[in-house]
Amino acid sequence: MKIIFFTQSNWSIPAIIELGKTHEISGVVTQLQGPNFNPQLIGFLEQSNLPIIDWDQISKDGWASISKDSDIGISFGFSKKIKEEIFSSFPMGVLNVHFGKLPKYAGPAPLFWTLKNQEPTLTISFHLIDQDWDAGDLVYEEDIPIFPGEPFGLLGARAAQISGGKLNTLLGRMDSIQRTPLKVNSHQLKRPTELDLTIDWKELKANEIEALVNASNPGYGGAITTFRGSQLKILEVSPAEVNEVGIFSPGTIVYSDPNYGVFVICGDYNCLRLNILQLEGTIITGQKIAALGVRVNEKFGS
């Protein structure tokens, strides 16, 4: 079987490797410039001697400018709209890999919202695309458990490894597989805004803040807060029990120690330990900022 991939994501690499063992990868469509240019992906493709097809050149010259003798297209971490003239040119269509339950988590950031909403599992959806976003015909779903404290990056990498094997199995039985039409989600979840990424210490419970932090690491740079008048991002936290002395409002540091780190009280008056933070371009641990003089009763803000 001849396959053309559409991707801008390193998460497609395990699938490309896996399918390349038993099928022919005719080419990989990606972007060679702009914000979606991925030098790591390009380096892998060049080392693997796989043909690289520039999406922007296709948009300019038309699909007819490249080979169309492939059997199926696979879209995996590709943010551009694949037009009907392209997906209909494949005898078997274009199969999209979507890290989220469809149609519930239709949209460009399903993994973020799945984690933020504290879902117990991630659904990997495999569907043949049509003219609508994240719609068409569902051909398979794979549910994988989300481990406690698992961040965006680790979950995505784990799902990518699983997807490669599942794609290989699916391609072997595409002619007989059952297809279920997907409803179009008219209220798709968008990419998270700065407001979505910002911690509201007063309103959010400790588990909700932990979920937000996990959902934003590293794909969105961490959950946003302010401290001493400057913005910083929190990359990792963990639940903690603190025998605090005194009355503290949410967002207040209730314990700070160079050996144990920094502990903050949340909207439900449970505490989180701040493990890893990013400020002024520096990745730093909670223990380190405690050693640098962060004190009890100092506050984080929204």
TrEMBL record:
Q: Name one GO cellular component term.
A: cytosol
Report the superkingdom from the record. Bacteria
CDD domains according to UniProt:
FMT_core (cd08369)
Residue ranges of domain Formyl transferase C-terminal in the record: 196-282
Q: Which residues form the Formyl transferase N-terminal domain?
A: 71-160
By its UniProt entry, which Pfam families does this protein fall under? Answer: Formyl_trans_C, Formyl_trans_N
Q: Which Gene3D superfamilies match?
A: 3.40.50.12230
**A single GO molecular function, which one?**
methionyl-tRNA formyltransferase activity
What is the name of the protein in this document? Methionyl-tRNA formyltransferase
> What organism does the UniProt record list as the source?
Algoriphagus machipongonensis
